[in-house]
Amino acid sequence: EVVKRELGREEDKLKKLEGELKGLINDEDKSKKKINANDREIERNRSQITINKSDETRKVEQINTQKTVVDNTRQAYGDTNKEAKKALADLEKERKKIEGSSEKLNKEIDNLQQQIRDEERNITQSQQSQREKTAEIEKQKTVISQVEAKLKGIN
User: Fold this and answer.
1) Mind listing the pLDDT tens digit for each residue in 134-154?
2) Angle at CA 37, nearest 5°, toward 36 and 42?
3) Dihedral through CA 68, CA 70, CA 72, CA 74, nearest 10?
4) Under a CB-based contact definition with an 8 Å cutoff, are residues 14 and 138 in contact?
5) 3-state DSSP call for residue 155?
6) What span, in angstroms and rounded, lies between the C-alpha atoms of 66 and 81?
7) Residue 119 CA neighbour count, 13 Å, CB half
8) Among candidates 121, 63, 122, which has minimal Cα distance to 90?
9) 52 vs 94: CA distance, rounded Å
10) Which residues contact 91 (CB under 8 A, 6 or more apart)?
11) Which is nearest to 109 in space by CA: 52, 51, 49, 54?
12) Is residue 17 over pLDDT 90?
């Protein structure tokens, strides 16, 4: 009876260790999924940055064209070309907005890359913990075998 209780306790310890191992494996899987999600987000951000560069190039061309308009209207009408100046200011504002968006995306990429490095460290640590936990499980199985042998010896 005492040996049976001991066997039950040892089997419970084994189940607990196996549960902990499963938790470590799940944590590793979550880290891998986060890395993949971050990689996809980085790719989307890089695509948007490329689009922003094209948009910014077009804005610079529009700004240069508008500067010519402002200069021409100044020569033709004096300094009464407020609409042309406002259009130029609006274009410059839009270009700065695009530039700011690209900078924000670059910062987000930096943050995502840092998260990836953190998750990679977590995976390495988790794999080490899994190896240690697996060794503990094997030891516990040996203990259970010994208790079972003791129980058979009694019966």
Assistant:
1) 999 999 999 999 999 988 887
2) 95
3) -150
4) no
5) coil
6) 12
7) 19
8) 63
9) 11
10) 59, 62, 63, 66
11) 49
12) yes
What's the per-residue H, E or C state across 44-80? HHHHHHHHHHHHHHHHHHHHHHHHHHHHHHHHHHCCC
**Rounded to an integer, what distance in angstroms lies between the CA atom of residue 130 and that of residue 20?**
9
Tokens of 77: 């009408």
Taking only the tens place, the pLDDT of each residue in 56-102 is 999 999 999 999 988 888 777 766 678 888 999 999 999 999 999 99
Question: Model's pTM, two decimal places?
Answer: 0.79
Mutual orientation of helices 82-154 and 2-77 as an angle, nearest 10°? 170
Token couple for 155: 């019966």
Q: Which two tokens stand for residue 109?
A: 């990429």
DSSP-derived secondary structure letter, 103: H
Residue with tokens 């080490």: 128
Burial class (CB in 10 A: 0-12, 13-18, 19+), 137: middle
Residue position matching structure tokens 């406002």: 86
Name the least confident of 2-6, 94-98, 131-135.
2-6
